[in-house]
Amino acid sequence: MNLIDLSSMAMKDVWLIPLLPFLAFILILVTGVKLRKISSYISILGIFLAFVVSAGVLIGRLLSPEADPYQIFVNWITYKDATIQLGLLVDNLSAIMVFFITLVATLIQVYSIGYMDHEKDGGFARYFAYMSLFAASMLGLVLANNLFSLYICWELVGLSSYLLIGFWYQKKSAADAAKKAFVVTRFGDLGLLIGIVFLYFLTGTTNFIEVRDLLPTLGAVNVTIIALLIFSGAVGKSAQFPLHVWLPDAMEGPTPVSALIHAATMVAAGVYLVARTFPIFEAAPTAPIIVAYIGAVTALIAACMAVVQVDIKRVLAYSTISQLGYMMMALGAGAYIGAMAVSHGGASAGTQGYVAGTFHLVTHAFFKALLFLCAGSAIHAVMSNDMWGMGGLGKKMPVTGLTFLVGALAISGIPPFSGFFSKDEIIATMTSIPQHPILMIIAFLVVFMTAYYMFRAYYLTFCGEYRGEGAPHENPRVMTWPLVILAAITVVVGFVGMPGDANMFGNFLTAGGPHISEHVVSFTPMIISLILALAGISTAFAFYYKRPQENEALLKKRFSLLWTLFDKKFYMDDFWEWIVRNILFLAARVAEFIDNYFIDGVVNLTGYLIGAAGDRLRYEESGKVQQYALMIVIFLFVTGLGLLALSRFINIPNIPFGG
Amino acid sequence: MIEFIYNCFNNCWNFFLDVGLVHYLILSALIFCIGIYGVITRRNAITVLMSLELMFNAVNINFIAFGRQLGTPVGQVFALFIIAVAAAEAAVGLAIIINIYRNFRGVDVDKVDLLKW
Amino acid sequence: MLEKFIPISFELSVSVLAFLLLLLDIFGVRSKRVFAAVGIIGLILTLPLTNHMWGMHATLFGGAYVLDGMAVFFKVLFIFITLLIFLFSLDFLEKKFEFRGEYYSMLLFVCLGLMLAVSSADLLTLFISIELISLPLYLLAAFEKKNKASSEAGLKYFLLGAFASAIFLYGISMVYGTVGSTKFVDIITAAGKMNLYASPVMLLGIIGLLTGLGFKISASPFHMWSPDVFEGAPTPVAAFISVAPKAAGIAIIIRLFLLSMAAPQVQPVWVLILLLLSAMSMTIGNLTAIPQKDFKRMLAYSGIAQIGYVLLALAAATTLGIASAMFYMILYAFTNLGAFGVLMLVTRMNGSSSISEFAGLSKRAPALALMLLLSLLSLAGIPPLAGFVGKFYLFLAAFQHGGLLFKIMVLYAILNSVVSLYYYLGVLKVAYFDPPADEGTVRVPTSSGLALFLCGMTIVVLGILPPLSTWVVNITQSMGLSL
User: Fold this and answer.
1) Pick from A105, A273, B50, C115: most CB atoms within 10 A?
2) Do B40 and A621 touch (CB under 8 A)?
3) What's the pLDDT tens digit per position in C204-251?
4) A149 to chain C nearest CA, in Å?
5) pLDDT score of C463
6) What whole-number distance in Å separates Cα of residue C283 and Cα of residue A360?
7) Residue C63: is its pLDDT beyond 80?
């Protein structure tokens, strides 16, 4: 039994990956909410076993990266030629995704044992049931081999996200936030569904591999429409402008949920979707640049809003939006380059952006989960989200402080940490499209702002004097160990994506496809971004290391206009509210009128008639057995005579049924 | 005219003279209809049961007649089976009727109408 | 030597089991649990026999008995139904009527009759097995001897059943007279040469046969016994009557009409009758179910309507029609038993079966309420439950026939399913929104809980994994049918 055998075994059992957490979900549901600790063990066991299988799968792909993708599927619905599959696809991309999702999910679930300790009996088990459901659907999503399967899991992920955001449903703000998340993402999902159906209509399949081969036959306009519709799904799920408004509110959920779902995995589903359907974007001439610009706008405005937040989780939420925008920007730019190359007759060349976006997705998952868990650790100790109620926690909670610092350095893009490498890839992609200098400028600007707001949060929370109440202390080991592990991963994971030809990540991801375009490692953008990051850190140090209150008041006064704009979230929430109040409500009133007086009238009349008929027929059942027999005799008599007469007039084999 | 009446008379005479399959079928149909009539109109459960037996026996006549006509033993075998099953049916029926008598103090089928609507 | 018995091994083992239970009764075993346990274990032990029979095509007893894919399919279904009824009865009998040992063995005899019926390839065998189904069921319906309603149900079931049997026999005699044989194989050849204009006797035969079978499946207008019998009979028996004879009846219609009388000389006749029965069943079933106050009566009418949908697919007389009807019978069995099972647990104590008993069930027993929800929504045909897929295939089969009449009927059937939502949701409204009359929680005993869990899983799994329905198509194709 060597490694190859083991990994090929894992590959055959890939269906276990989503199934195990799902079984855990069912088991917790069935055994009821009475089991307290045991429910968490069931859940963790499920996700951990899934992790083991995923590791086997990843090893299998690493050993033979150029092998054909492995698919298993059942024909779910078959009607004539049309078939809808339920199936799993393992290629290098999904192998990486399941590996890091199961890894992060395992760590976060372990952490949750400590964090959710205060929950009442029922809540504890419910939490773990939802977490398992989420894990199962997310794993199903990344492993799906066609867009229909993906869409099913996509909605399941949305559902579990809804359940977890509204986990503390007694709290009105939590319930509202859950509703908002569900409804806002629905806008995007609708587009996605239309796109899938449209694609199916044109090609007769939604299988990723078959679609890729059929793309050249579709025509540029169709592909562009499909690409944009698919992207609209990604906009909703990945909280891109203008549908980003739900993500900050989603922080009402428990912090580990924010870490797992609203930072590391679910919101990455949109980015993953774009990466998965990357060939479609490459084949569409104008769609990629729209993706890139939406990503850029998102990255910029979210970074702006992050600067003024007081709630530590909201800082992280906006930072997540901003980073997701960054990834979208990379994917869009990559697909744009690819599309340009294709239109000039060259082979697909968009791999750099593709690799950069995906790599940032992975590194971001680790360090953002780390940051959220650190924030959660601090919140759990202080019992408040407000950064002004923290401060000086670095001394009281050394592990949390240190690991948060690692995460903050990583996200700012300081060298040995992972964020540096992935960010550098993105910036390199941006610099390779001089036609769109704005993208590059935004990319650099966001680097500065990211460093600034992250260290603002760091200094406010972990440095200076403690401003809150009580005496916070370090959390139990079940919470700190996941932090340490994640921090360790954050430190080392960047090295798999060294720039240039030594980029193992890139080589692995694009193995078997067109080779990564030979790009020269240029040090200039790297150094510029490093300088900008350091500048951001220093600025934050200058303002917030000492006397933060006075300095912030000063900033507020000096930049009052911008500050208000950022603080009001660019009036995006108000914009949506205005639309809902004035346009949707008007439409609703008209619809209500028609519904009440016209449709309901018809419906009620029909209902009344049917009910009356039922009431009348009921009394045919008189209870007298001989009347029942009479009924049979009458039927015999009538059909007998009727058929006899019929057979006299029509030749029986010629009886038409109107065909 | 006279010829027509003669023909009718002659046909009728021949009908009764030459007993064949059709006669048995008509006989059985008559008995079957009498059975149906009994089942629908009689009030006494025992009489209803007897009417049912009449229906079964009408079918027996059919089978025997067809069997004879076709020259296969299947008809007779079938009739034997029907006799056996009808006996079992009667036993079950009588048991149920006795139970009805105990519960309703009578065997009037018309009065057994608690379950309705 | 033993191989010769393989095709009838199900029947052999079930009859041995039935006699064993009778013997237990004679030798003075008085514990119901022992009876039920022996029966359940015996039935489970017969299931592995399926392995030997799968894919087999055997004809025995001079062509009077046939074992093919469809027969095995229905036999396994009957074993499962009987097993579920045993599990339910175990808890239900505890509180109800004085126990007599023959209860379980009579259920097994019915099961034996059902198995023989789906394998019959001769009208004589068919008649005997139908009587074997009916006679114990008459007695089971009247099993609560001291209960007026139960004995009335027995009387009505018996009188009408015997009446329908006599008409069925009359039909058989007519078929025998026309064909000259009672074997299905002979009917197939004779049907191709028939001329109904010259000899209309066969018309009477077809009508008589369909009357007898229509009574078994409670198609309208032969349905009138079923609401009364369901209401009066003990609930497990009513549950059994509501699924098992119907499945057998559908199987017999498939074998006797769709497979043996497919020749165009006779086919239009029974297709017309089936369409008529289907239309009447859907209308009367759905409309009359609405004002019902009693849950068992409502389920009886709902069952009549469901049979209407199945007959519509059968009237199309295609392989898809057969496959979809078979698939529908599985899910109908499990779904209906699920609904009856919930009723049994809720009303175990007081014997009433009024819909108002469900008031506040979601608070008294959330699991039972969920089960009720699953079964009723499945009956109503709501995705993603099994009922939706089943109905979809039924309507598809009818629609593919292509005739205008069929298209109109499909439309009508869809409208009917909309109407049916009204009464299914009415029950769910009571269960979920009405305040409970009785605050106590409902205890769910292990055996019933297990049975309900099985039903619920089947409803959900068949609903989201319709590859199983392709599996049914494979069975029909293995029988050499590809239309």
Assistant:
1) A105
2) no
3) 999 999 999 999 999 988 999 999 999 999 999 999 999 999 999 999
4) 13
5) 85
6) 62
7) yes
Measured CA to CA in angstroms, residue C148 lies from B3, B91, C231, C233 at distances of 66, 20, 12, 10
Distance CA C126, CA C253 (A): 11
Q: What are phi and psi of A476, to 5 degrees?
A: -60, 165
Structure token pair of residue C234? 């003990």
Check the CA dihedral C208-C212-C215-C217 and report its sign.
negative
Query: How confident is the model over C112-128, as pLDDT tens digits?
Result: 999 999 999 999 999 99
Query: How far apart, in Å, are the Cα atoms of A393 and each of A469, A471, A473, C15, C309?
Result: 12, 10, 8, 79, 70
Query: Is the pLDDT higher at A519 or at C401?
Result: C401
Question: Is residue C258 in some structural domain?
Answer: no
B17 confidence band (pLDDT: 50, 70, 90):
low
Q: Nearest CB to B117: which of A621, A625, A629?
A: A621
Distance CA B49, CA C297 (A): 27
Reference A441, options A239, A327, A300; nearest CA is A300
Q: Give the pLDDT score at A542.
A: 81
CA distance A501 to A257: 37
Residue B59's pLDDT is: 95
User: Both tokens of residue C158?
Assistant: 């018996």
- Looking at chain A, which residue has its C-alpha nearest residue B41? A626
| pLDDT tens-digit map of A190-238 | 989 999 888 888 888 888 888 888 887 878 888 888 888 999 988 988 8
Q: Do the beta carbons of residue A154 and residue A189 sit within 8 Å?
A: yes
Residues of chain A with pLDDT under 50: 346-348, 518
ipTM of this complex: 0.91
> Residue B80's pLDDT is what?
95
SS3 A86: strand
Does the residue C46 lie in any domain?
Answer: no
Q: Which residue has the tokens 């593919």?
A: C400
Pick A617's closest partner by Cβ from C207, C288, C396. C288
- Which residue does chain C place closest to A632, by CA atoms? C222
Contact assignment for C291 to A74 by CB distance below 8 Å: no
Contacts C138 to B, Cβ<8 Å: 92-93, 96
Residue ranges of domains in chain B, CATH in brackets: 2-104 (1.10.287.3510)
Residue C115: inside a domain: no
Contact status of C97 with chain B (Cβ, < 8 Å): no
Identify the residue among C165, C222, C288 best suited for mutation to test binding to A, counting A beta carbons within 10 A and taking the highest: C288
Total number of domains in chain C? 1
Please give, rounded to a whole number of angstroms, the shortest distance from the CA of C182 to a CA of chain B: 8
Tell me the one-letter amino acid at C414. Answer: I
Cα distance between residue C340 and residue C295, in whole Å: 9
Q: Range with the lowest mean pLDDT among A10-19, C32-41, C424-433? A: A10-19
Distance CA C82, CA C112 (A): 10
Domain that holds residue C434: 268-483
